[in-house]
Specification:
- This protein is mainly alpha-helical and 85 residues long.
- It has one domain (2-84).
- Helices cover 73% and strands 0% of the residues.
- The chain is rod-shaped, with a radius of gyration of 30 Å.
- The termini are far apart.
Length: 85
C-alpha cells in the first residue's frame, strides 16, 4: 500500500512541476507581449517627438525662454484666416 501511495505522490509532484513550467512559459509569453507593446509605444512616442521637434524648428534652452506661443498654419487657416475677410 505504501509503495502505491509513494508512486501516486511522485506522479502528482511531476504533474505539479509540469503545471508550474507551463505557467512559467505562459508568464514569459505574457511578459514578452508586454515588452513588445511597450517597445511599440516607445517607438510611436519617439516618432511623435521627432515630428514635434521638426515642427518646432529651433531649439532654445528652456531657461532662456521668456514666453512662447504655438502656431500651426492649418489651425490658423481653418479658424482665423476666414475672420479677416
Amino acid at each position: 500500500m505504501m509503495a502505491n501511495d509513494i508512486l501516486q505522490q511522485e506522479t502528482r509532484i511531476r504533474e505539479l512541476a509540469e503545471q508550474i513550467a507551463k505557467k512559467s512559459d505562459n508568464r514569459k509569453m505574457a511578459d514578452l507581449v508586454d515588452l513588445q507593446d511597450s517597445a511599440r509605444q516607445l517607438r510611436d512616442q519617439y516618432e511623435s517627438l521627432l515630428f514635434a521637434i521638426e515642427d518646432f524648428g529651433i531649439l532654445i534652452p528652456v531657461e532662456e525662454i521668456g514666453s512662447m506661443t504655438f502656431y500651426h498654419a492649418s489651425i490658423h487657416a481653418t479658424y482665423f484666416a476666414a475672420q479677416g475677410k
